[in-house]
Write a structure and sequence with these properties.
single chain; alpha+beta; Rieske Iron-sulfur Protein; six-stranded antiparallel β-sheet; 4 helices; 19% helix; binds zinc ion
Length: 197
């Protein structure tokens, strides 16, 4: 009997390893850079562009935070909007059940959030830094800008990235074409969490 169990587990293990091997691109989907953010919408703040970006498809926003006395400013920006939305948030909004505050918005305090209808509404959290300019220079001062509702562009290298296509280069590509850095994130309907790697 034990031998049968052993064979069963050995089969499962090899099947999992095979799956991981065959789906190597899935393993590489997320960057190893650090991003950490916890936000609880039960405290409100639904005026932030983050809210429609999480609750609808094909709506992307930039977001960053600035420390202020007693908390943070949550700064969000969407394509076609003249002004950034700034919401004052306390540290309580960024924590849950007394968990320690962890706040790191990618390479340089700037992320892109939204869902793609081309990927069944999958939630994407990308770094706002141009990954190719970062690779080439190690500098973190090449923030992307909206080129259209679904594309962002780097002013420095002129690469354009498709937000609906998992962040791949869709125009202006050169020889090295890294796609946007992606971070692991979940959204429960009230609670948004980014935790990477
Ligand atoms: Zn660039």
């Amino acid at each position: 009997m034990r031998k049968k169990f052993f064979l069963f587990y050995a089969f499962c293990a090899s099947a999992i390893l095979c799956f991981m091997g065959c789906k190597g691109e899935v393993v590489d989907e997320y960057t190893t850079h650090v991003a950490s953010f916890r936000f609880d919408f039960q405290y409100g703040h639904t005026q932030s562009y983050l809210y429609p970006a999480l609750n609808s498809t094909n709506y992307f926003c930039f977001f960053s935070t600035n420390p202020i006395q007693g908390g943070y400013d949550l700064v969000t920006e969407a394509y076609g909007t003249k002004e950034k939305n700034v919401e004052h948030i306390t540290e309580a909004v960024l924590t849950k059940s007394g968990r320690a505050l962890g706040l790191a918005l990618g390479l340089n305090n700037g992320l892109i959030v939204g869902r793609s209808s081309l990927q069944d509404g999958e939630l994407y959290v990308f770094d706002r830094q141009c990954p190719n300019c970062f690779n080439e220079t190690s500098q973190k001062n090449y923030p992307l800008k909206f080129q259209s509702s679904f594309n962002v562009i780097c002013d420095h290298c002129k690469r354009e990235y498709g937000l609906l296509n998992g962040g791949v280069v869709v125009a202006g590509g050169k020889e090295a074409n890294e796609k946007l850095l992606r971070y692991r994130a979940t959204y429960s309907g009230t609670y948004f969490q980014i935790s990477n790697p």
